[in-house]
Amino acid sequence: MLFLMILGVFRMEVLIRFNTHFLGGYEGDAGLYIWLIKTNLHNLLSEPWFNTKAFYPYTRTLAWSDNYILPSLAVWPFLKLGLSLEASYNSILILANFLNGFITYRLAFVLIGVQLPALFSGMLFMCFSYLGLQLGHPQLQYAFWIPAAIYYLFKYIYRPGWMPALFIGLMTFLCFLCSVYYAVFIALAVPTLLLALLILKPQALTLKSWVRLVAGGLAGLSPLVFFLKPYLDVRNAFGSRTFLEARSFAATAASFFSAPSYNLLYNKSSLWSHAEANLFPGLAVLILTAFACKHMVDTKRLRWRTLSFFFFLIAAGIFSLPWLSHPYCKYVTAACLWGALLSFGLVLFKLGKLETKLGFSIITNRNLIALFLFLSLVTFSISLGPLNNVASGRVSLTPFAFFYYILPGLNSIRAISRIGVLTIFGLVMASAFALQLLMQRRNFCAWFSGLVLFFGLLENYNYIYPVQPADKPPEAFNTLASKSFQNSFNVKKDDALIVLPFTSNLNPDLSVKSWSNFSILNVHYMNWSSDGGLSLVNGYSGQRTWFTDNLPGRLAEFPDALSLKALAGISNLRYILFIPRFAPAEVSKTVLARSQNFSSELIHVLTDDQGAMLFEYAPTTKISSDFKVFVPSFPEGFLHLELMALYQEGSPSLEVPVLISYRPKKEVSTTLALPANGEFNTYSVRTPSDTDRCRPLTVSFKVPTTATVYLRTRRFEALP
Q1: Are 558 and 508 a contacting pair, CB within 8 Å?
Q2: Given CB 3.0 to 4.6 Å as the disulfide criterion, which of 52, 308, 380, 434 pairs with 291?
């Protein structure tokens, strides 16, 4: 109850607007997760596995970011009880915040056995200012799987058995269905803690216990095989995240002293880092952690090893700062990080030896502090990213580069600074032990611990966080979704829709000027069209594609010859919806007038009360050497084509090779016999099954130079 009361204070603004506003917002990344709930509830089992109705004709698109399957299923009962989507969404997100604190509290209480320090750790992690800043990234609110997995790890260490081992794997799997980031972090945290335990107490687990732990963990993780394949397909298709991306989103030492811009006490420090790395947990946590560290090494025999550790750690922190940008500074940082890890490992080894000599065979509080500090150190080292710009020919020698190649999934993570959540978790746990030690002192006032807790919460209070109502869609979206419209126009389930403009502003080279604006518009389109049943070409997620990079520029002057030729290359595209308020005024004012120049293929259906214009698109395209049709690659199916060759005297039939490219330097060819009689003929071409299952197939035609061929129908029909 106390956790709920504290959380109520921190989330008071959304509680007042619980039924009408979304916690975390409705635009950009926040809106993407609202759409994920909708698509998972409506299409997860009705569409081919991990396909969605957005991003057409790309496939496996649910694996382009977090799949968010488990939160979507959790929302379903609330909707069935009659709650609005806003209230259902908010309930699940607030429940995740609560579990962040409560499970951390349970872990601390099991390890420490004292109520107040456990409450301190739970409440501080629940109200961590960084997580409050990231409410617009709802997947980051599901951090409770980390303490849950670690809880079962310690349960196994104290009493090895199949069930705790099984639950470690199961927690990781369930985390994967909420946040892929955190699932990867758990896969790092558990071995890191076990490595520290192995250095400290090699005898803590027998060989049989190690085997049981691995076997049980893999058994609990085994359901992942049904969900992992699409992610592997995406990585094979688009490649791993580059070091450049990780470097752009990495933390520095200053990040752990930088609070969010909406933090009540420390908002000025937000300038010391970027928004993905405002990771300051507050002075209360840092001071208590320092006290815990002092207690861990409070013996002369560890003094020099401890001093060497702090020397390397402080040096790494200083040389990681962004204003020390020379490449040699980054090499020094990397060397110091490895030095800090090695020297702390030696501290662990020596501490274990000393305790063995003193007859301590059990895992002591010093050991537990050491385990969590080692976890914080490892994740801090990784959060700094590759440091050097590898693209310019320099080498990255950091711990991040090491784990990038050996830890499954880490090479798919862009915002590597987010692993700092695990760093802070380790510090929060260590600080709870410190508070427990202080409470044992005779001169310690009982009320002081409550004051420390209050101060720690105050330090993490954000006075503003995103709360936003849903934007009302233009009426044209409701018309498209209506049964009367779909029956009147004989709308098919595989018809596709594109909404324009993709973005409000372009650079002179026709590239996207603002990806923030791109994300806001396209996430709006995804949510507005989610009930219509049509496939949507638009989409925004963590994966950049050829479409997102090229279509905005090619469609900037819609409707013109260039834009209509680009649209003709999208199979199954039947409807185009243009929303003037998102486009430059000089373009939007003339759209309807210019569409009359293409009235044979661009049919104006309606203009709604907000000025949104809906067109039915029925192109007849003259095939050229550079013309391609984009077709979904998964599942396999048939591409139905209508081709017509103009009459040629003395040449009653043409041979038209159809080339289907499905990966670099891979293609299949089918030759069509096309009568040169000026009439349209229908053909069906089977698409190949050996594809990358993510990027669309590209279909091109080799037309004899003396012939003129037109394409009308280009409909893809997936096999059931």
Answers
A1: no
A2: 434
